[in-house]
Amino acid sequence: MATIFSRIIAGEIPSYRIYENDRFFAFLDINPLAEGHTLVIPKVETDYLFDLEDELIGDMMIFAKKVARAIDETMDCKRVGMAVLGLEVPHAHIHLVPINDLYDIEFSRPKLKFSDEAFRATAQRIAAAIR
Ligand code: AMP
Known about the structure:
about 30% helix, binds adenosine monophosphate
């Protein structure tokens, strides 16, 4: 069965899409630690990030860099933190989280809630800053 992220890529499940190319897709996490918390995924369905082929994981990092720069420019943060967990969704992904301190990337803390409109606006702002 396709993962929830493959169904997002296929457009079967809606997402707050930020950017994509032929191999990767970036969209907002719906249970964010911070405004602009983004997930970067490969379009090929692989469970564990570190099982990806060298070239693919390398190119995924370059793709994530482009998205991270756009998050940096548009969100109120000192840095964009990066994390790999994969304990919930078995489709490789990188979390990009705008942070001002360590607590901002503490995954065990309560997640933030935003309206559909706010999520859309955030995704659009980040997308508009992609170079
Ligand atoms: P993990 O697999 O532990 O890295 O966590 C998976 C992440 O995917 C969590 O932060 C979820 O909030 C996020 N997530 C799950 N389903 C969706 C979805 N439909 N759209 C956006 N983010 C999602």
